[in-house]
Amino acid sequence: MSTATYILGIVSALIALFTVVELLRRRRLRERHAVWWFVAALLALVLGIFPATLTALADLLGVEVPTNLVFFVSIVILFLVSLQHSSELTGLEDKTRVLAEESALQKVRLERLEGLQERPSSDFRPEP
Questions:
Q1: Which residues contact 68 (CB under 8 A, 6 or more apart)?
Q2: What are the CA-CA distances from residue 123 to residues 20, 75, 116, 128 (Å)?
């Protein structure tokens, strides 16, 4: 691996790590969402600093081209992030449905109460 590629890998991993930490600090990213991105950035940093680790791991797992292992691990991490987001989206859809139903019921109740107040009572006769 050339020196430029080595440095590019380390710098890219540091930028990814810094971005995740900065988004967490600014509260633009929640901790539960940042976990997988943080793991990916740390993995990239470790592999950037110790590229022989990737080759050894690829040999251990029987992967001929170490880059294919990187792509596979990246796809797995993206799959887990997608799965996590789908799970949370399902929960939010359920909560939204319940809120919409409760809102509709409140609207009906309010319209009934307003209708009762607007109707003049025929039994009411002012006293002289």
A1: 58
A2: 70, 75, 14, 15
Dig out the tokens for 77 from the structure: 């991490």
SS3 letters for 16-42?
HHHHHHHHHHCCCCCHHHHHHHHHHHH
State the pTM of this model: 0.69
Contacts for 44 with CB less than 8 Å, ≥ 6 apart: 9, 12, 13, 16
Comparing C-alpha atoms, which of 83, 89, 69 is closest to residue 36?
A: 83
**Local mean pLDDT, 10-residue blocks, the chain (128 residues):** 87 94 92 87 92 94 94 92 92 97 96 82 57
Helix extents (H) in 1-128: 3-25, 31-49, 51-61, 66-118
